[in-house]
Amino acid sequence: MIIIAELNGILPAVRDMKDFEKLLTSDHEYIIFLESRLSQIKSLVNYSKRNNKKVLVHADLIQGLKTDDYGVEFIFREIKPDGIVSTRGNVISLAKQHDILAVQRMFAVDSHALENTIQIINRVKPDYIEIMPGIIPALITEVSDRTGIPVIAGGLIRTDAEVQRAYDSGAKAISTSDKALWGL
User: Fold this and answer.
1) 3-class DSSP state for residue 161?
2) Structural domain boundaries enclosing 150
3) Whole-Å CA distances, 45 to 38, 81, 160
4) What is the CATH number of the domain that holds 150?
5) Domain assignment present for 1
6) How many domains does the chain contain in total?
7) Does this UniProt record's set of keywords contain RNA-binding (predicted)?
């Protein structure tokens, strides 16, 4: 069993390759890859690791990959990220079985979705929960209290004050593709 990494601070989420190049020379330890293609993700992960970066890949957003058991196994064996982000319980379960850092992404659209996702979280026990949108302080506190799992706030966070409110509500880290917040 590996020791699970402690995620904290700003976690830059990359959508644009121009941003990726800038992150390679930054002080950020982790990079999250969003919206990648199957044909490019392995080389991006390898390049990142050669530049001493740890990589989380959003499995659900790899174009050309089905996130069934075989697709997830391909991610672990061929792409070799340091962690996985997914909304799917099966992906999180497989990551846990392979000692890969597992981040369960949760979309808080209504109370029914919240309850369903918390049931999944309590069953699969991810290492972290990423709450989307991350601008609802009471939700960050509630999910953290109900699950006992560290929370990452992500989505619609646009200002330094929103970042601080997320931290004040118990978020351990902030995931963002907003370059203006990467320097915080």
Assistant:
1) helix
2) 9-181
3) 11, 7, 29
4) 3.20.20.70
5) no
6) 1
7) yes
The string of DSSP letters for 9-41 reads EEEEEE-SHHHHHHHHTSS-SEEEE-S-BHHHH
| Angle at which helices 38-50 and 17-24 cross, to 10° | 20
Four-CA torsion 129, 133, 138, 142, nearest 10 degrees: -20
> Does residue 2 lie within any of the structural domains?
no
DSSP 60: G
Tens digit of each residue's pLDDT (9 = 90 or more) over 168-184? 999 999 999 999 999 98
* pLDDT tens, position by position, 122-178: 999 999 999 999 999 999 999 999 999 999 999 999 999 999 999 999 999 999 999
The gap between the terminal CA atoms of the chain, to the nearest Å, is 33
pTM over 0.85: yes
